[in-house]
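Hello,

Following up on my earlier ticket. Below are the two sequence lines again, exactly as submitted.
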Amino acid sequence: MKVRTLNMKKPNPKAYWRSMISKVKSVGNWLHKIFSPIWNFLKKLVRAIAPAWKNSWVMLLMVLIMAIAQLTLLWRPIVGIYFNAGALAILLGLAVGLERIRQLAISVAIIPVSTMVVLSIPQTTTFARMVVFYDAVLILGLVYRFMFTLEYPLQNTHLKLKEYAFSLSLMAVAGEILGVTSYLMLRHHYVFGTTPLPMVAASVAVFAFAEETLFRGLIQQRAMQVMPPLQAALLPTLLFTFTSISTVTLLAPAFSLLLGAALALAYYQKQNLVLTGTINALVKLTYVGLMASFVFR
Amino acid sequence: MFLQLPFQFLPQLQQTVLVINTVLLLGALIVVELVYSETPKEKRQHLKYFAPLLLVLIGLLIFAAYKQVGSS
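Thanks for your patience. The regenerated structure is below:
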């Protein structure tokens, strides 16, 4: 009996893989034809906008780590302390490793260091705690401003007497308007408790000077050396907002965002701390004055 | 409008901060030793930028030691 055998071709693995490879290549060519114009367009777009976002990752990273530190302090202080120390370590690491952002990173590091100082030297009242915090910020801010600007006096910040007369009155009006806004937003959230009003009024002027020394005089000024003006203005504004977060109200950081943006704009225009300090001090003094007149009567 | 520490103070926080401060200070001194001791002198002029922050941390370390001596 004859056994009928099927005339089946022996499978050829080489031919199979060749055909598979050619198929993959044809799909690859097809995809390349479709996506290469899109890819080229994206590359051109990135090249076009890259200068405007130069070193912006620095701004985002600094805001992110400070926001995490501050929010964890708000959520659970004992955990937040570790995040605060971590933020300080990261900022010092950036300062050691990256020469171009060294001065900026050191300037931002003043915030976590001042937080550690306040936590190490406990105070009984909110006012006393804020005095210690602002003192640490002011002393470190002044020392670093002195160190960073030793080599080059900034001629463009110099104003003549006539310019001061015009700008200061303009800034005073802006400060009064923002001060009234702060009263409308925060009149139910006064933070200084029973501290005598003359002492508060004298202190808030110093607080304003400390804030300007750090946020505009150091952070924004240093940021303007390494990133475009918009990002350089965003950095101190967002840091100011996050360091104003409190358990009492969300209106405090909201107003800080508004005030920080106005001060950053004023500093960008004139690069003069006397002018921004005038706005900030008048905002705080107007707020305290209106509280004294209408709430504590 | 004002910079805030958004919590009430507890003595436990103070202890933790003083310990973390010591760890950070030691870390910073080790980095200074490892990174900068091999760097030529003319290239480490910027080391002075870190001095004020390190001085504050050293001040807190002294305060922690004083507190320990005072409580014992």
